[in-house]
Design a protein that fits this description.
Blueprint: H1 8-25, H2 31-53, E1 60-61, H3 64-70, E2 77-78, H4 87-99, E3 106-109, H5 119-133, E4 138-142, H6 147-160, E5 166-170, H7 174-183, E6 186-189, H8 198-205, E7 210-213, H9 216-222, E8 228-231, H10 236-247, H11 262-279
Parallel strand pairs: 1-2, 3-4, 3-6, 4-5, 6-7, 7-8
């Protein structure tokens, strides 16, 4: 679902994202925490995963982005993609599209509120947006977070002067979250890691445009679609500017993304596994 390890250029970006997160939410005095997090998430994972994968005869990635992120294009078979939404998901999205008809004055943060989904950049971009457009918009952040992280986000938002415009929903049901995505005028998605982002697929199916970083998963699968605006990774100013452009337009065209059927995906996996079995 995600790359088991990253090539040097992507590893550099991930480390930068971790440092940005801790510098802003915890302060530079927490340098030892940053080093621990890097080691735990990236360095050890990188070494152990390569050792394990080198012993495996068939390595399958769920999207072309896995091959791009790892640099193992010749050694991992990457599906195009190997995941999709099922009929229950699509029915629920259809229901939400029927029920919710109007957009409201808020932005939704597309990922989990953590370091590698770009929560700090999302908050910094929202600061720029409120400076330009005033306090008429809110930023909705969904998902479970610990009390410690919640307090750090609240303090950081207070320092930025945007706390009154931040809504931390905590856990909500899938249907409630989809309704928020449908009601939002735009989704911001400054994620640094992804194999195949369901959040973007869901947003487009709910007619909500997305502003995202140019990481491989997004460049490969969504770059050509109307309603997806891609900016350079870590370019918070561009992230906010593209979001402002959307917020100030009366209408934004949004394309429906291509979805593979689960039947086709499973058939492809069966063929791959069968081809390996026949060799032995």
């Amino acid at each position: 679902q995600l790359p088991p390890f990253y090539k040097k250029s992507r590893l550099k970006a991930i480390k930068r994202a971790i440092k940005l997160y801790y510098d802003n939410l915890y302060g530079k005095v927490k340098k030892e925490m940053i080093n621990f997090y890097r080691t735990l998430l990236v360095n050890l994972s990188n070494y152990n995963s390569r050792k394990i994968l080198n012993k495996i005869n068939l390595k399958i990635g769920i999207s072309k982005a896995i091959c791009e992120e790892t640099g193992y294009e010749s050694e991992i078979y990457c599906m195009d993609p190997g995941v999709s939404l099922d009929d229950t998901d699509l029915a629920l999205i259809g229901k939400v599209n029927e029920v919710v008809k109007e957009k409201r004055n808020f932005i939704i943060f597309g990922g989990r509120p953590d370091a590698l989904k770009g929560i700090v950049e999302g908050l910094l971009a929202f600061k720029h947006i409120t400076t330009r457009l005033g306090g008429n918009f809110k930023l909705y952040i969904t998902g479970n977070i610990s009390d410690l992280v919640k307090q750090r986000i609240i303090r950081f938002s207070k320092r930025l002067g945007i706390l009154d415009n931040i809504v931390l929903t905590g856990y909500i049901s899938r249907e409630e979250r989809l309704k928020l995505v449908k009601e939002a005028k735009v989704m911001i998605y400054p994620s640094h890691i992804d194999g195949y982002p369901y959040a973007i697929v869901e947003s487009l199916l709910l007619n909500t445009p997305v502003v995202a970083y140019n990481i491989p998963a997004i460049e490969i699968y969504f770059k050509s679609l109307s309603g997806v605006y891609i900016v350079n990774e870590f370019d918070v100013e561009a992230l906010s500017s593209e979001t402002i452009n959307i917020l100030t337009q009366n209408r934004v065209d949004v394309d429906i993304p291509r979805l593979r059927s689960w039947h086709d995906i499973i058939e492809e996996e069966i063929k791959l596994i069968s081809s390996i079995i026949k060799k032995y």
